[in-house]
Amino acid sequence: MNLPSAKSPWTTTLPIVLALVAWTLFWYRDTALAMVEIWWRSETFNHAFLVPLISLWLIWRQRHVLAEVRPVASPLWLILMAGAGFAWLMGELAAVNAVTQFALVGLLVLISPVLLGGRITWQISFALAFLFFAVPFGEFMMPMMMQHTADFTVFALRLTGIPVYREGLQFVIPSGNWSVVEACSGVRYLIASIVVGTLYAYINYRSLKRRLIFIGVSILVPLVANWLRAYIIVMLGHLSGNTLAVGVDHLIYGWVFFGVVIMIVFAIGMRWAENTDPTSIRQASDAAPAPAHAAGRQGIIALLAAGVIAAPAVWLSAVSPSVGSESAPGLAPVEVVGWAMTDERKIDWKPAYDNPSTEWQGEFVDASGRRVGIYLGYYRDQGYTRKLVSSQNVLVVSKDEHWAKVAGGHQEIRLSGETLHVLRTELRAMGPAEQRLIVRHWYWVGGRLETRPAVVKIYTALDKLLGRGDDGAVVMVYTEKNGPGEPDATLDAFTEAAWPALARMLDTAKARR
Questions:
Q1: Do residues 449 and 346 lie in contact, with contact meaning Cβ atoms separated by under 8 Å?
Q2: Which of 504, 494, 502, 473 is nearest to 373 (CA)?
Q3: How many helices and strands, by DSSP H and E, does the chain display?
Q4: 332-338: long-range contacts at Cβ-Cβ below 8 A with a sequence spacing of 24 or more?
């Protein structure tokens, strides 16, 4: 069967669909361009350039089947479309790329059921779902995967009989020092394997069970392969006296090993391949045509969809001016009962927080010689270039030459009469001094205390939506682990004495918007 004839309802429907896609991309062009920018600059997501083309090809493969089904517009799907638009609005207010980009793809996907109906959407459901792989998402797993890679590598080295001393992501063996960095996490391998494996399963299998099994294998194999890759690289370096698997060839060996493993998996998967020729897959219901196409009804629904699509972007332009402010909040040293601020800085550490509106850092000592440092990073008029919660905002970057994170977790403290689960981290100075710090930190969001990044984002978005501003701050207190007194007791005493004054200062800064 060829393309639809001039009398086919598709000759009217396709232009409407394409027009609505263009309309969506016009209103959300900044989000779309941000996705493309990430595809271009990040090797992890270079594959995303192919995702829209692959989705179109998957739909094109079914053109003969689709030509026999009449599109029937379904206005009920406008409810989900409105939900996707609101998700985009909240994501934009909180400056969360993943939310805005998933919402944009969701809007584009929902054009299908709105204008074409459920039967056609089901027929091309995989091609539509595949579009979500265009969202550059998954790097949030990097810290966890780095931890697991270090766990396996150290376990395998000890199993081999090589002594290992480990702290955090750094470990020492007799032949030298090693550390697990971002490139060792395996996130690139995992994302690439899931995308390719999912497409492979769809094309080569008809059984849902076989498809799910192969996708599961595509998730498991890169994880295990990356652990083995890390172990093999360390062993190559150890056995060769650090002449092999270091520098650039470190990464080359990794990709070669991963490529070989994936090719073996795909070769094995071909043994259970099934016939998936789309021309042989005909829905029994195709013989019963859908209700006659009503161009007028479809046009009205298309106009409603256009309004639903544009509404969040218009709403954002109406909300944004009400939260704008060009004044930077002022933060000044506070007086803490029982503690004296000192100009002599003995703790040479500063968190890697990017582009705060203003920041303040100082050190206090008490009569017994206990020393505590404090850092405040205040954020106002947050957006994609300035935001309180970001994957770029960390206590120590992985390539820091002076400090390394060796442990982390949550700790329960009392603050303002309430129990708060703050984040507790141990840092170690890189060098002969072996200085160690215990750092506690939490967030202040418009007067609320919080440690969960997702909740901080939600509060920020709601405050902006309601015109209350978006002021927020990160609060950090830290002390030397081996200094005078027990470190946690020192931080407890200082926090209890200092927090009332710090809270007043933050509240005053917000009130001066």
A1: no
A2: 494
A3: 15, 11
A4: 332/360, 332/505, 333/360, 333/362, 334/498, 334/501, 334/502, 334/505, 335/501, 336/364, 336/494, 336/497, 336/498, 336/501, 337/497, 338/366, 338/367, 338/493, 338/497
How close are the terminal C-alpha atoms of the chain, in Å? 66
> Is the pTM value of this prediction over 0.70?
yes
Measuring CA to CA, which residue among 6, 112, 10 is closest to residue 66? Answer: 10
Inter-residue contact 63 to 277 (CB < 8 Å) = no
Pairing relationship of beta strands 165-167 and 472-480 according to DSSP bridges: unpaired
Residue owning tokens 């517009």: 73
Q: Collapsing DSSP states into helix, strand and coil, what is residue 206?
A: coil
In angstroms, the CA 63 to CA 70 distance is 13
Question: How far is Cα 168 from Cα 180, in angstroms, rounded to an integer?
Answer: 9
Q: How big is the chain, counted in residues?
A: 513
Identify the helix (H) or strand (E) that includes residue 167. Answer: strand 165-167
Residue keyed to tokens 């926090």? 495
Residue 181 in contact with residue 250, Cβ under 8 Å? no
CA distances 343 to 4, 332, 333, 363, 487, Å, are: 79, 14, 11, 8, 21
Across the chain, mean pLDDT equals: 85
Q: Residue 394 — φ and ψ, nearest 5°?
A: -140, 165
| Cβ atoms 94, 457 nearer than 8 A | yes
Rounded Cα distance, 245 and 85, in Å: 48
Give yes or no for a contact between 444 and 363, defined as CB atoms under 8 angstroms apart.
no
Q: Are 437 and 481 in contact (CB under 8 A)?
A: yes
Least Cα distance to 264 among 205, 209, 222, 203 occurs for: 222
SS3 state of residue 489:
helix
Per-residue pLDDT reduced to its tens digit, 277-306: 655 444 434 434 445 445 678 889 999 999
Lowest mean pLDDT among 80-89, 210-219, 324-333, 389-398: 324-333
Tell me which residue has tokens 């805005």.
100
Cα angle 326, 332, 337 (rounded to 5 degrees) comes to: 150
What are the tokens at 61?
A: 């493969």
What are phi and psi for residue 144, nearest 5 degrees?
Answer: -65, -40
**Residue 286: what pLDDT?**
42
Q: Is the dihedral of CA 309, 460, 464, 359 positive or negative?
A: negative
- Phi, psi for residue 170 in degrees, rounded to 5: -105, 140
Q: What is the DSSP pairing of strand 371-379 with strand 403-415?
A: unpaired
Q: In whole angstroms, how large is the CA radius of gyration of the chain? A: 28
As a whole number of angstroms, the distance between CA 388 and CA 116 comes to 42
Give all strands (DSSP E) within 286-401, no chain letters: 340-342, 358-365, 371-379
Assigned token pair, 459: 């509060």
| C-alpha–C-alpha distance, residues 233 and 281, integer Å | 47
DSSP 8-state assignment for residue 245: S
Q: Answer for the pair 171, 179: CB distance below 8 angstroms, yes or no.
A: yes
Contact status, residue 73 vs residue 114, Cβ threshold 8 Å? yes
